[in-house]
Design goal:
The chain has 282 residues and is α/β, with parallel strands linked by helices. It has two domains: 136 residues, Oxidized Rhodanese, domain 1 (3-Layer(aba) Sandwich), CATH 3.40.250; 106 residues, Oxidized Rhodanese, domain 1, CATH 3.40.250.10. The protein contains ten helices and nine strands. The chain is globular and about 50 Å long. 45% of the residues are buried.
């Protein structure tokens, strides 16, 4: 992902008919069909891209799988498994050569999870985009559709990512005491106060969101807010939340802003607590 990782509705309107662009709606099927969607968008519901045992967990809570297991098996946190993901993408008519533009109706946090999942399964980062402002931003100025596009199934190839941002629990423990690393808790201040990884700073993922536009706040404002928390490009950043959903949005935002060294603790607090690692309460 790069400075083009987040695109405007205007960009999407201009490019959605490009043959190598696939727009992906990650809302539930009933929303996609009943409420409408970006014309030409395919539907890959968010629950489908999570490991089966976690698919019903809409909130950031309990999980049983360890992030120390392989990505391919789907046991690294909440990942669905390579075969499952390849099937989902293939059924949606997506190939690794396509530029995927994802959106949801929740400030992009669910869509970002799809994009990070694709990244972890080897989709080229320069071909992944998040719609700024979610579905509501699109409908303010552009038409919606209830027609389901006809797509030809493809064989989606899963590979190792160009750069693997996943880190395990031992790497997080080491990062806590490293002055060149900032460990970031992307949950709410209330959750952070109840218990967080020692040394972690709190940066609620919603701090970068403009509630009125539902999109990203101005880049200079976001950079200032990040810097106030010590989250600067000169440091390696390690992100966590509860079940790796909210860190997906922050990961996309940081890469969009040019942060080059950003790591992703997929196991997050679900694994950290299960392994009996210490927490700090405030």
């Amino acid at each position: 992902m790069n400075e083009d990782a987040i695109v405007s509705p205007e960009w999407l309107a201009e490019h959605r008919d490009d043959p190598d662009v696939v727009v992906v709606d990650v809302r539930d099927a009933w929303e996609y069909d009943g409420i409408g969607h970006v014309p030409g968008a395919v539907n890959v519901p968010y629950d489908a891209i999570r490991a089966e045992e976690h698919a019903a967990e809409g909130a950031e809570d309990g999980a049983d799988e360890s992030a120390s297991e392989s990505v391919e098996s789907g046991r690294a946190g909440m990942l669905p498994g390579a075969d499952t993901f390849a099937t989902l993408m293939g059924e949606a008519g997506i190939t690794r050569e396509d530029t995927v533009v994802a959106y949801d109706d929740h400030h992009g946090v669910f869509a970002a999870r799809l994009l990070v999942t694709a990244l972890l399964y080897g989709h080229p980062p320069e071909h992944l985009r998040l719609l700024d402002g979610d579905y509501s931003a699109w409908t303010r100025e552009h038409p919606a559709s209830t027609e389901t596009p006809d797509v030809a199934a493809t064989t989606y190839e899963v590979t190792d990512p160009e750069h693997d941002p996943l880190v395990d629990i031992e790497a997080v423990e080491e990062a806590v005491d490293d002055p060149d690393v900032v460990v970031v808790d992307t949950r709410s201040p209330e959750e952070y106060a109840e218990g967080h990884i020692p040394g972690a700073v709190n940066f609620d993922w919603r701090e970068v969101v403009d509630e009125e536009t539902r999109g990203l706040r101005p880049a200079d404002v976001v950079r200032d807010v990040l810097a106030e928390k010590g989250i600067v490009p000169e440091k390696r950043v390690v992100l966590y939340c509860n079940t790796a959903r909210r860190i997906s949005h922050t990961y996309v935002v940081l890469r969009h802003l040019g942060y080059e060294d950003v790591d992703f603790y997929e196991g997050s607090l679900t694994e950290w607590k299960r392994e009996g690692r210490p927490l700090v309460s405030e």
